[in-house]
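Suppose a colleague, Dr. K., hands you the sequence of a protein chain of 461 amino acids and asks what its three-dimensional shape might be. Before reaching for any lab equipment, you can write down a predicted structure in token form. Begin with the sequence itself:
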Amino acid sequence: MRGFTQNGYQIKVTLKPFTNGYLYLGHHFGSKQYIIDSVAINSNSEVVFSGKEKLFGGVYMVIYPQKNGWFEILVDKQQHFSVTADTTDIIGKMQFTNSSDNQLFQSYQKIAQEKGKAIALLQKQLKEDPAGSDSVKTRSAITALNAEMQQYREQFIQAHPAHLLTAIFHILQEPKVPDAAQHPGGKYDSAFAYQYYKQHYWDGVSFTDERLVRTPVFEPKLQRYFSNVLQQQPDTLSKAANKILDASISNKEMFKFILSALTEKYINPTYMGQDAVFVNLFERYYAPGKADYWLNDKYRKAVFDRAYSVMANLIGEKAADMNMVDSSGKAAPLYGIKAPYIVICFWDPTCGHCQTEVPQLDSLFQHKWKKQGVQMYGVMTDGGKEAWLKFIREHQLRGWTHVYQLPAVKEAEYAANKPGYKQLYDVYQTPVLYLLDKDKNIIAKKLNHDQLDELLQVKLK
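The predicted structure, expressed as tokens, is then:
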């Protein structure tokens, strides 16, 4: 293309009917999209996006002036090309010059659109008459169309093994579990089917292919693997994370993306105990400096502070002792409590949530847990001693070991650079509940009173 230099990128776009405003160039980044360039449209509906540095490979978007739509293009090794399109029929009327990558992409889009429309029509017919005389024929037609798309992708993979679209097709492929006759014993085995699916989930996917970061398909596959495919046990999740991260570590972009995604997922996990996965990530990758090349000070502080808060209170670990005093000023450390089970409640008498939760917790203790040998260790975190004592009296919180930390003890811990109990127990909001066994091992944490009761009853049985 005359006038196009071969340094950086230069993408000429002609997009009818727009003749004013701006067109924007953006790209996918996991589940998000980012705009990286904007150019005013001339009277011929033209813009030229350009830059001195080459773009990272991936799926990019040309975004309309009102940002109410876009069409996608592939950017890989070919970064000097032109595209002409019309919003009345984007895929049908699109034409590329100097980009065989995008010509192949457009061919696929046309076929996918054609098959997709046909499948949607058949599905509509099936929904309107699911038990009709033609329902079997309709289902067979849908299956045949899906098989044709799958065959197209497989043939494309064979013909263009290094193409970005091939990498995307590998992401979209689902493992095909062998027929029941090929299972152990010649009959369907759900355990075998699961293991096969899990072991082949990432077939064909390269964890060093940084182009996948800038596609809309890689992150959903990654998230589904950790949320739905793997058993939700910290050890299992940590081993899988390590395997994928170790495979990606030679590619800085891919490693950064995967580590960031998994950190975000497990730094404050949905399920109790999965913070152990975050601790594993911290100890294996952050602490040794393997992520230092991209960490800024703010992110680094957030990760390190969170890790130090979580490491001391993992499920199954010994709970840290607490140097506390009761309402009369007498020493009442946690390890002085002897009971089959101990519930620790960190609370603040001025906290609205605590004012609701603590009396409900006490009701369970008075009417059920006390008889079962459970002891309550209530830690006043904030709110002042007078408000604390008043709340205890008014709500008759009897039988608890009520404690707080003397200011002098807190100051001494700080001066000695020792972690305080809030860090050791990850208490940055209230109320926070922990369940310990007789040896002060952490059984559960951060459950509400009903969840804690359900778990206790299971343990007591």
